[in-house]
């Protein structure tokens, strides 16, 4: 069971230096059953969170005084594992992997559909275990004999390194840090490829096929990546943090 | 201009002197046997040859300097084009930066409002705000994607272009039929003899997106049921993929504009599209070290060729 399902609903701290965005999103999230407080920069957010801890932070990246990534580093440095969804400003894939490496739990590119933000927030809250770092912050992910050394960008199966293209590695990483969650092809394209043309959803299928081939995973009886008919993909194995190499 | 004239004058002088020296040498050569006896003449001839050689060397250096200057001018032009593209990218980045927050705010505000379902005009106005802000959001995202694509690292796998073409055709045909449209007539010709298309090094997803865009364009601008031809060929280390239609074609004064962002032809205004399809094709081709070339005749049709360097080895 996830955290934060208090009688008043999960508490969200929404952080953005654009007041118009706070003004629009806050009522939307509240109508969707969340309790929302707002801050306009990282320092204000830290102060608000210290006063009344939030269950999740939704945080812009580029902000005055203390930006979103620095905010995540401060929290994690202090042993605070409250989930964070970053609203990335720079859409480059560099930004996406940097967001994950610094311990953010998920991210969305601006501009985004508010419904998609709500879906991300709910998924992250479902996964989160209070007081514990999420898989997104782990350096090593393990599922059965599959081991992903994220810092070293290595994937090992039964102890032997396997060759995966960068895109397939990124996809495997994303699926493993969000296990048990259904991801549509469109969402995966947006999160990992940075574009969402519906015609390109085959790109996701190709990379899943590559992951299965390299990992020897049987699509009919998957140990790792499961196809959810008509919808998308889900990592079906049990993922845990591994000991550092 | 003075410099140019001086060079010309110097060159003429060299030719003249060089010619005299040649004559002098020619005169002197038969008398080499008598060099010892007619020393002053030999010294004169040798001196003239030396002078001519020196002047020729100077002229050669001058000419090389001119060539270097021309090359420098070419380099300056190339640098100018690159600077222009960089300025364009900076503009797109600023536009993206300045638009994304207002568009996010619009989407958030629209999502936060729930009009009374019985209030028809408000329901319609709300739908307009939601729909149009979503459209703006998609445009901003596409523009950013394009600007990013010009500079970010792309994958460098070996890509089977023939497979990309077959996949793209199958997907576009499926999409058209899934939307209830007539099954499009797409004829694909890919070589098998004397050899199939060689692979290209690059990003399979981007190449797929480029070919798909060309196909979607060709079908969009063709009358229902008209044939679209897709041809692959390999010429001197270049893989060429051509997508050709018999649509209305593009007026000559618009052909040079179609690869620019947001450019939409007069005849395309009634059709859906963002004006970012062909720019994407251009950027994908360029990032693979190739180019996209469009030929069109109003009333006959349009062909776009993707030229992509074949992978070495």
TrEMBL record, chain B:
Molecular function per GO: phosphorelay sensor kinase activity
Domain Histidine kinase: 94-312
Keyword Metal-binding part of the UniProt annotation: no
PROSITE patterns, per the entry: HIS_KIN
SMART domains registered for this protein in UniProt: HATPase_c (SM00387), HisKA (SM00388)
Keyword Methyltransferase: no
Highest taxon above the source species: Bacteria
Transmembrane segments: 38-61
Catalytic activity annotation: ATP + protein L-histidine = ADP + protein N-phospho-L-histidine
Any one annotated GO CC term: plasma membrane
Keywords: Kinase, Membrane, Phosphoprotein, Transferase, Transmembrane, Transmembrane helix, Two-component regulatory system
Record localization: Cell membrane
EC supergroup of this enzyme: transferase
Protein name: histidine kinase
Origin species: Cellulomonas oligotrophica
């Amino acid at each position: 069971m996830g955290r934060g399902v208090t009688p008043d609903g999960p508490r969200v701290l929404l952080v953005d230096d654009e007041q118009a965005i706070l003004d629009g999103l806050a009522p939307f999230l509240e109508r969707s059953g969340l309790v929302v407080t707002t801050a306009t920069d990282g320092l204000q957010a830290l102060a608000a969170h210290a006063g009344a801890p939030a269950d999740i932070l939704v945080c812009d990246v580029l902000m005055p005084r203390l930006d979103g990534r620095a905010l995540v580093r401060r929290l994690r440095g202090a042993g605070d594992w409250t989930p964070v969804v970053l609203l990335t400003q720079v859409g480059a894939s560099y930004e996406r992997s940097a967001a994950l490496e610094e311990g953010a739990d998920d991210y969305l590119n601006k501009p985004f559909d508010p419904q998609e933000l709500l879906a991300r927030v709910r998924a992250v809250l479902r996964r989160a275990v209070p007081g514990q770092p999420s898989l997104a912050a782990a350096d090593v992910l393990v599922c059965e004999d599959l081991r992903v050394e994220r810092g070293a960008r290595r994937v090992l199966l039964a102890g032997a390194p396997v060759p995966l293209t960068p895109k397939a590695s990124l996809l495997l990483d994303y699926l493993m840090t969000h296990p048990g969650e259904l991801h549509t092809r469109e969402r995966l394209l947006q999160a990992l490829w940075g574009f969402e043309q519906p015609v390109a959803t085959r790109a996701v299928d190709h990379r899943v096929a590559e992951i299965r081939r390299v990992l020897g995973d049987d699509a009919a009886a998957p140990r790792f990546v499961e196809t959810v008919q008509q919808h998308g993909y889900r990592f079906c194995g049990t993922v845990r943090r591994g000991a550092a190499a | 201009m003075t410099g140019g004239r001086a060079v010309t004058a110097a060159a003429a002088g060299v030719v003249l002197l060089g010619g005299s020296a040649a004559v002098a040498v020619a005169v002197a050569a038969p008398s080499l046997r008598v060099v010892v006896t007619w020393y002053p003449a030999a010294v004169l001839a040798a001196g003239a040859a030396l002078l001519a050689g020196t002047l020729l060397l100077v002229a050669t250096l001058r000419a090389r300097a001119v060539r270097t200057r021309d090359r420098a001018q070419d380099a300056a032009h190339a640098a100018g084009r690159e600077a222009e593209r960089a300025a364009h990218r900076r503009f797109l980045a600023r536009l993206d930066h300045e638009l994304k927050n207002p568009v996010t705010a619009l989407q958030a505000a629209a999502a936060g409002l729930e009009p009374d379902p019985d209030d028809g005009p408000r329901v319609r106005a709300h739908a307009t705000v939601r729909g149009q802000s979503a459209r703006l959001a998609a445009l901003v995202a596409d523009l950013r994607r394009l600007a990013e694509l010009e500079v970010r690292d792309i994958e460098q796998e070996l890509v089977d272009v023939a497979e990309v073409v077959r996949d793209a055709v199958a997907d576009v045909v499926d999409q058209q039929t899934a939307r209830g449209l007539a099954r499009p007539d797409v004829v694909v010709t890919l070589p098998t003899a004397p050899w199939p298309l060689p692979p290209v090094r690059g990003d399979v997803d981007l190449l797929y997106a480029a070919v798909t865009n060309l196909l979607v364009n060709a079908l969009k601008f063709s009358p229902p049921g008209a044939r679209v031809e897709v041809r692959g060929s390999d010429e001197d280390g270049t893989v060429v993929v051509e997508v050709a239609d018999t649509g209305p074609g593009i007026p000559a004064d618009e052909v040079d504009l179609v690869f620019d962002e947001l450019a939409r032809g007069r005849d395309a205004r009634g059709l859906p599209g963002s004006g970012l399809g062909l720019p994407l094709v251009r950027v994908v081709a360029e990032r693979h070290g190739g180019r996209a070339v469009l030929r069109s005749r109003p009333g006959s049709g349009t062909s776009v060729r993707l030229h992509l360097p074949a992978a070495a080895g």
